[in-house]
Amino acid sequence: MALAAVGGINDGEVEKEDFLAAYGTFELDPSSQAFTTKTPMWFASMTKFVTSVAVLQCIDRGLFGLESSDDVDRLLPEWSQPQILAGFEDGQPELQNAKEKITAGRLISHTSGLAYDFHPGLLLKWRQSRGEGPRAMRGTIPDVFTTPLLFEPGTGWDYGPGHDVAGLMVARANNCTLEEYMRENIFDVLGMDDTTFEPRAHHDVAARLPPMVGRPLPDEPLSDEIASLNSTRNLMLDHKDQYGSGGLFSTAEDYLKLLKSILRNDGQILKPETVDTLFVSTMSPSSDAALNITLANPAMAAAMIPGEPIVGSPGAGEWTHGLLGLIGLISKEGGLQAGWTQWGGAPNLKWWIDRKGNSCGIFATQLSPPGEKRHQPMTHLFQQEMAKRYRRP
């Protein structure tokens, strides 16, 4: 695993030194090469944060609007007339024309109505009614994600491919690939040289990747767990499109550079006034309610808020969602301060930015299964130590 964190700086203050640490080896064999903070990894859903930043840059530059459905009609015509999957009648899907519209803001806050088709539920049943299996990440973005919505845009919350569609919006608005856009406007600006959607072509990243490792779940072979996550990683290595929800490969040191730029509001990536909007909720009351139902599900909570009590249980936190990720609404004693934002990735990675507490950081592994519990206390110990180390006097 690799850990990286840093604090903000006040006017006239000497820049604080980054905290960088890594533990373990590539394989269970202790004689294999050591993990470092420069070790490339598949960052999975940690990609969403970077895609959200790219979307907000385009909004800063006037290329499209955060809440403009007209811009979605112009740049994403495949999603301009969405339908809602209301249920099934005699095994056939019932589709209704949506009354609300998809917007860039709804795409990056998981309130568009789009969902992944590999989760059990209505969308998987819709695929099966067409004689199909899950197709997410197995084709181009328009090919695999022009699916029915699960709710009226803006009225619910469901973890889904909104960032894939939003990344396509960025690419089309700039007449380039998402990789080309991010390299020019984010990666090269901050010196994120080992971050890419193209690990086989860029800096030999693919050849430097560690294998996935894992701890077994009860009654499930360890090899099956690792194979499942590896198969998804392989889809990203040999991708059909540049998926803004999960396609990036990066390092702890690279990723920290972007977190740090947002924490310090240094103007390199986003306008200062835009950064101020990243730590406030974008949710309607009904979307917040749907999010909290999700976080009350033990399986979903284990992956989305690892190590935290599920919503509705004793000691549980309170959560909402913003333009970058989840927002914690209750301060942790000796830890992160209310208003911090965070997200994670399937191989047990996690980032946070805590502006009030003056820290940001990343905890990165290539560990299976998602939400693996035995390591989770380490993420909280790391956050507590960094909150203490970088707290302003």
Automatic annotation (TrEMBL):
Pfam families registered for this protein in UniProt: Beta-lactamase (PF00144)
UniProt keyword Hydrolase, yes or no: yes
Q: Which GO terms describe its molecular function?
A: hydrolase activity
Task: Report which superkingdom the organism of origin falls in.
Answer: Eukaryota
Show where the Beta-lactamase-related domain sits: 30-374
* InterPro entries in alphabetical order: Beta-lactam-related (IPR001466), Beta-lactam/transpept-like (IPR012338), Diverse_Enzym_Activities (IPR050789)
Keywords, alphabetical: Hydrolase
Q: Does the keyword Transport apply?
A: no
Which spans of this chain does the record mark as coiled coil?
none
Similarity annotation: Belongs to the class-A beta-lactamase family.
Q: What is this protein called?
A: Beta-lactamase-related domain-containing protein
Query: Could you tell me which species this protein originates from?
Result: Didymosphaeria variabile
